[in-house]
Amino acid sequence: MSGEAHPDELGAFLKARRAGLGPREVGLPDSGAKRRVKGLRREEVALLASISTDYYTRLEQGRRQASAPVLETLARVLRLDGEEREHLFELAGKAASRMSAKPRRGVQKAEPQLRRVLEELTTTPALVLGRRMDILAWNPMAAALLTDFSRLPEKERNYAWLVFTDPAMRALHADWENTARSSVEILRREAGCNPRDERMARLVGELSLRDDDFRRWWGRHRVTAHRGGSKTLRHPVAGELTLDWSALASVNDPEQQLVVWTAEPGAAAHDGLRILASWSAESGASWSPSPQG
Predict the structure, then answer these.
(1) 229 forms bridges with which residues in the sheet?
(2) Where is the HTH cro/C1-type domain (predicted)?
(3) Which CATH superfamily is domain 7-96 in?
(4) Residue 153, CA atoms < 13 Å, CB-side half-sphere
């Protein structure tokens, strides 16, 4: 199933990926002399992909469409991982994007089913992320773990925004750089598939002006999906918590994900979450959904 192609984004992505590879990494001779371009040259990529330099140049310049077999070959030549390969096909319009599966709407609200799940999770931090990593809803445990989202203006209820602009969020994440870089890669993937998203453009523009790291990582054109992993948080009340997190997409709206943080029973982090739950109950934190545009 084909989607909408984005030739300019595709060209920028290809250029960034070849810039990150050296000749030796792909089996080409390297004299050691200083090269005029960073990474592989266009003609080297074309040679490895068994296509003409003119064909590849036009592809990178957004003046030519690539077939699925050529995309497969380029993914192999450029050493793309699974997420990057999928992104390549999405930009070329050869695969339906998860984020373009439903028409864009003016206002996005947390799905009622996800709200009910949040209400039931009384000892597990959980929130609902929408487009651009907007925070659509959360439970008291998520507010206790991360921040009191209800006190933030709606435009600042965005996970990536908080990671880069809130000093408390920066201090909370033991490996802030990895969290921040992953946020950029998630945004980059969505932006590539929805280049006319004005809210995304404003978010990226503001973060690029405010943070040098964001601007540098954005320029690398690396992408990833928001699915799960492990994260260590240094919480002022519960202490150090190493938590597993999972992102579960909504069936009714794939642009929404329920993100939950859990810990293995018996682990120190599990006890820490129980302490956090008690503190949250005593503090009177309340669950609240938030509409986003």
Answers:
(1) 245
(2) 35-85
(3) lambda repressor-like DNA-binding domains (1.10.260.40)
(4) 3
3-state secondary structure of 124: coil
Q: What is the CATH number of domain 112-289?
A: 3.30.450.180
Q: Report phi then psi at 27, rounded to 5.
A: 85, 15
| Ordered mean pLDDT values, 10 residues apiece, the chain (293 residues) | 76 88 77 72 86 89 86 87 86 62 63 91 94 95 93 93 95 96 92 82 92 93 85 93 92 88 94 90 54 48
Residue from 164, 88, 154, 99 nearest 132 by CA: 99
Site of tokens 């209820």: 157
Domain map of the chain by residue range? 7-96, 112-289
The answer to pTM > 0.70 is yes
Contact assessment for residue 45 and residue 77, using Cβ atoms and an 8 Å cutoff: yes
The DSSP-derived string for 145-209 is: HT--GGGS-GGG-BHHHHHHH-HHHHHHBTTHHHHHHHHHHHHHHHHHH-TT-HHHHHHHHHHHH
What is the rounded CA–CA span in Å between residue 132 and residue 190?
7
* Structure tokens belonging to residue 44: 């080297």
Under a CB-based contact definition with an 8 Å cutoff, are residues 262 and 124 in contact? yes
